Amino acid sequence: MPPAGHGRRAVLALAGGALAAPALAQGKFPDRPIRLIVPWPPGGSADAQLRSMAELAARTLGQPVLVENRPGASGTLGAQFLTTQARPDGYTLGQMHMSIIRRPFIVRTPPWDPVADFTHIIGLCGWMYGIVVKADGPIKSWADYLAHARAHPGRLTYATSGIATTNHLAMEEIAAREGIELVHVPYRAANESAVAVASGEVMSVADASSWAPLVEGGQLRVICVWTAERSPRFPDAPTLRELGYDMVITSPYGISGPKGMDPGVVRVLHDAFKAALMDPANAAVRTQFDMPLEYYDTADYRQFIARRADYEQAMARKLNLRID
């Protein structure tokens, strides 16, 4: 005969095990469509890459993955929805990117904790950034760029797609290392800034590769790229590492959900999105938009977000960045 209380302890143990079991044990996930929030207008590189992934992942999941565009607020409306309205059931997800990680450190009232207030699922890819000048201008190389900045303090202008973006912070860091004074000219979008350089409104652009068609068309010249290796598309452009900076800047992004998601659900989503990411069809989209692969599994992506949050907080303090 078991000792007194043994049966009660057994029942409690079984109940605890049931509570701890993944939601998958109560029913198949997913059993209805999944919503994936893309916080940019349709037609851009991230939108195209994530739409491709959604279509491919749906085949594995057996349910549609519906892309919902929510542009505005520097790409943070998706994060706002995840932290205030979405349930942590795996049916509402969103793109996680650098502006979401950075925002709590550059506003007066932080809207979320980028580490604790989300369930980070998978890291996907980034962008190819570079510095581009007018093809028929006086600057032909990175050495020329630095020389011009030193000869004309506060006169060399560079465009980006916004204040406190990844590329803006990178240029601030480079300028500080070199002891040069550059003038930042933010535009609403990367393609607008590339056109501004071609028309002579500004002297350079430091942004993702929306400038590529104008380089290939002969209007612009790329003097460096910020990827780990030279771009196959622009093999003559050196990387920042080759120029003496231990910097690789691709602004990688991934997919996250509301905090508190079931680990079993996260595993299913990670595996489906990883298969989609590695599919040749998605690789073709990334190649089209010069998007380097930046895959992180769930555990590594959480660690990446935590490290990046520390970096963004330090940079915000160093540069005294505030947008409100």
TrEMBL record:
Pfam families recorded: TctC
Keywords: Signal
Signal peptide: 1-25
Keyword Protease in record: no
PANTHER family the record matches: BLR1237 PROTEIN, TRICARBOXYLATE-BINDING PROTEIN
UniProt record similarity statement: Belongs to the UPF0065 (bug) family.
Record protein name field: Tripartite tricarboxylate transporter substrate binding protein
Species annotation: Roseicella aquatilis
